[in-house]
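Hi support team,

I submitted a single chain yesterday and got back a structure, but I'm not sure I'm reading the token output correctly. Could someone confirm the output below corresponds to the sequence I sent? I've pasted both exactly as they appear in my results page.

Thanks,
R.
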Amino acid sequence: MSAHPTYRHVDGERIPGTTRHAFIRNGSDYYLTDLIVYADGLIDCWGLVGLAEFEEKLRSGWVATTLEQGARASVHHVAAWKFDEPQSWVTPDMLLGEVRDTIDELNGRPDSTGRCLAAIDTYLADPTDERQWQLLDAYLAIPEHLRHYALGDMDNKDWPLQVLAVGVGGRMPRGDEAVTEKMYAAALAYFARQRELRTEHETRTEAFGPVEPSAPAVSLAHRVFPKGWPDDPGLLALRNEYPCPIQVRGIEYPDVDRAYLALSTGDETGHRAVLMAESNYAAKRMAETAPRRPGWEQARLAVMAQLMRAKYAQHPALAELLLSTRDAKILYSSADSAYWGEAGPRGRNWAGRLLELIRGELAADAAGIGAT
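Hi R., thanks for writing in. Yes, this is the structure output for that exact sequence:
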């Protein structure tokens, strides 16, 4: 199954969704298309329908899970063919179960597999007959073709789960094999080992470090100070327009922002005009009209990184300020650049990401494990 995220807008609200391939049967012809499942429970199968109507379309064959020998099929504007010995791996019930699971996932709820895994823990904590029946119901609620993936174990597949769910003397849902005491003991041992591995995973110290930062995110908002920067701007001193001179190739620039703008043009007159502009705002307007340096789009990220490194190498107090953010995600807002800033859906936040990189380099140097 190939899937990718999508969405639709309703009354200004963005409704997330996801797609999966499916055949629509219109008349005697089949059309391979995207079935789109949305978080609000609507499904687009050549028209938005609710779950109950979607089930009707499945039962009627409009959304096809049975393919007829010799029938004509096509992908719009791509190709057409006829089925020769067609095989389908899903039934209407399986596909309906997939769709229900997808709606749960889009809403952040446990799907049928998640509910079954929770039922395993509940049963093992107190193995009563009632909880075993609940476990079996939860297992059977997983779409049949997805059950062997439930434990995420491609060696044992769902064998231990089936044994646990039916108990000694019961018959396995798949294969109808009778469960013996030895099989049941093996299943209990399997889940005990899985519990040990889970505890070990949760308590071990990850050699590569935590996935998520431990420090709260830092927002470096764009601010304008008509009367000049305050004596103590706090973390805003990490912004590129903060006035702290940096030396680059024998030239002194008033701040990182001005150096970046001046270096963006290879024209000597334009470079000097940007450097000497009365404000960063005026420098931006001049840089926009100056001829751009060849290859600037490809070089700009490295240039900015070099300039920011110079700032923190030449101003140790600011380096300490940057290190004080620990491992926080740094969100850098920009009034006019979606490339450097994080605001809006198109924001790339490259200035914030570079600050995080340089902070890591400073920490590595302080620990004696830097590259230099």
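A quick pointer for reading it: The radius of gyration is 30 Å. Let us know if anything else looks off.

Best,
Support desk
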